[in-house]
Amino acid sequence: MKKTFLNLLYKTGGFAPFHRFNRNRFLILTYHRFSETETPFAVSRRQFAAHLAYLTKYRKVLSFDEISEHLQNGEKLPENAAIVTIDDGYHDAYEIAFPLLKKFGAPATLFAITDFIDGKIWVWTDKMRFIAMRMKAEKSTVEIGTQRIELENKTADKIFLSGSKANSVLKKMPDAEKDHEIARIARELKVGMPDLPPETNAPLSWTQAREMDASGVSLQSHSVTHPMLTQVSENRLNFELNESKQKLEEILQKKINAFCYPSGMFDENVWQAVKRNAYRCAVTTRYGFNREEANRFLLNRIDAQPDVVHFAQTVSGFEDFRQKF
Hints:
The protein is α/β, with parallel strands linked by helices.
């Protein structure tokens, strides 16, 4: 019944009143991975096209630079403002998302991990999923700290979900301990870890990044190595913020103004460091819309749900309304 009701709202324009109600709150959407076919852990080409068709119909899609300038100067934003953000810098952002963004004339922001695009590192959250996929048994229980996590690889869904459970524990550890634990689990399960990610988890190139940045998909900083910034030293924190900023400014020949907290991890010390390192704003993984008076270094975002009906439910504000009332 719930699904039927939501489908009816979507097909009849029933979410439109919620867009009007939320017209003075701006929306920041989060994407990570894109795929040619539908999967549980990525937005497919068809789904992303449907997202952009819906979003450009009901919202005014702006660049992050436009939003941050308004916020910094205390200027009123256009009604129904929205930003599309893509985290990390995987190859599918260029291959799948970029052509569609150009087709719909929608600006976007790609938060880049600079060492990842340099071809020096994995995005660490992919490692446990790789281990789950390559282990010999269909199920294996591993100990991470004081918790026991069951990894499974019978289906792509199980690989992704069990890897995510492991990551939720690992992200709370200091960076060196996290890396040690991942290496230990790989050894215990007899999985050889390559120095760099496989092609499915590879980054886009700097040539592609420049092309995107010149064509409406602005690159901004997501750190150098994607550590948990709440778990690193003050020197490392400033390195991750400053070095990534300088690298992007050198390659793209522009000012870098926005930052995305790796894995959404921040505290007051971290966001104040972002401010000190000459960024104008930063995004979190906290759910919600944003008001103009919001702290511009603690901006909320909303994960883009792959299914277009659930996408419309969240970006209209219907889901926010439902949760509150």
